[in-house]
From TrEMBL:
Keyword list, A-Z: Hydrolase, Membrane, Transmembrane, Transmembrane helix
InterPro entries: AB_hydrolase_fold, DUF915_hydro-like
Name of the protein: Hydrolase
Domain of life: Bacteria
Membrane-traversing stretches: 12-30
Coiled coil: none
SUPFAM superfamilies (alphabetical): alpha/beta-Hydrolases
GO molecular function: hydrolase activity
Stored Pfam families: DUF915
Length: 309
């Protein structure tokens, strides 16, 4: 009787050990399969991808955009650059040629300075990345005014040898030709222009050639120097449509966001647009763990086939 009980106990222990080993093997195999899939579908290089937030953005604003890519091991944040209001930089982290798909996050401590000031701050940031960290090429991601800042910055520098060269850009909810009720934003750098940049739902539209019918001052700035945008760049323009009749994401109208096409579509290697619809297309929700946006961004920046749908 005692011998039978001992055999049953040993059998139970053996069964438990087998189950644990089986589960462990299953977890290992799942991770191995995922790793192999990622290696097959995504490219890895030392080219950094630089994220820039929009109006009133903080350190947490852009993290949701790369959280999934980081959790899957596709990319990893290695540097945060803080731009102080006095124009001085504080850099946390570092970059090396051995890193694979490093992420750099830019945080403007004065997050209400506006898109023109942000673009000029990018001049200093990118110059430091070139001279101190030997960054020769990069990918750009921007949301809202961060998108405008990237476009204006790239038109200012073009392909100057003093700055890194742009490879791919994902621009989300960019206000290129107006913001709904822009004058309500506190923009001390250009109060005379604030009302001139006002947009309203269904007030503007794009002509057959993509040019907006109403040209606002901030768009005119870009229009004057659009030919300087880097020719080798590949650009994905993401915009929102709430499907509520406003033809907007609640902050940026579709004509304003899509007016980027007229500026650079014929200047770059490739230009794509992605329309996000429904409640998750609201301006702020475009960068808050938005599965559609995150999938398109990850595939376009790091994917081998750059599929956006």
């Amino acid at each position: 009787m005692q011998e039978a009980h001992l055999k049953s106990k040993k059998l139970l222990i053996a069964l438990i050990i087998s189950l644990i080993c089986g589960l462990g093997l299953g977890v290992w195999y799942a991770r191995y399969t995922q790793h192999q899939t990622i290696k097959h579908e995504y490219s890895f290089s030392s080219t950094p991808t630089i994220f820039v937030h929009g109006w009133t953005g903080t350190g947490r604003s852009e993290e949701p955009l790369f959280a999934s890519a980081q959790s899957l091991g596709i990319a990893k944040r290695h540097m945060i650059i803080y731009m102080r209001p006095n124009g001085k930089l504080k850099i946390k982290g570092h970059l090396t040629a051995k890193m694979k798909n490093p992420i750099v996050q830019v945080i403007f401590k004065n997050n209400r300075a506006g898109e023109i000031k942000d673009a000029h701050w990018l001049l200093k940031i990118m110059r430091v990345l070139k001279t101190k960290y030997h960054v020769n090429k990069y990918n750009a991601v921007g949301h809202s005014m961060g998108s405008y800042a990237w476009v204006y910055y790239n038109m200012l520098v073009g392909n100057s040898a003093k700055y890194p060269k742009l490879e791919r850009a994902v621009l989300i909810g960019g206000p290129y030709d107006g913001i709904i009720d822009n004058h309500k934003l506190n923009q001390p750098q250009n109060p005379p222009l604030s009302k001139l940049w006002d947009d309203q739902p269904n007030e503007n539209h794009l002509l057959k050639n993509g040019r907006p019918a109403i040209i606002r001052p901030e768009y005119q700035k870009l229009l004057a120097i659009r030919s300087r945008f880097p020719k080798q760049a590949e650009v994905l323009n993401i915009y929102g449509d709430l499907l509520n009749g406003s033809n907007s994401d609640g902050v940026i109208t579709i004509p304003s966001a899509r007016s980027l096409g007229y500026l650079i579509k014929n200047e770059v290697r490739s230009y794509h647009e992605l329309r996000v619809t429904g409640a998750n297309a609201q301006h702020s929700k475009l960068h808050e763990y938005n599965l559609t946006v995150n999938k398109a961004l990850t595939n376009f920046i790091w994917g081998k086939n750059k599929a956006i749908n």
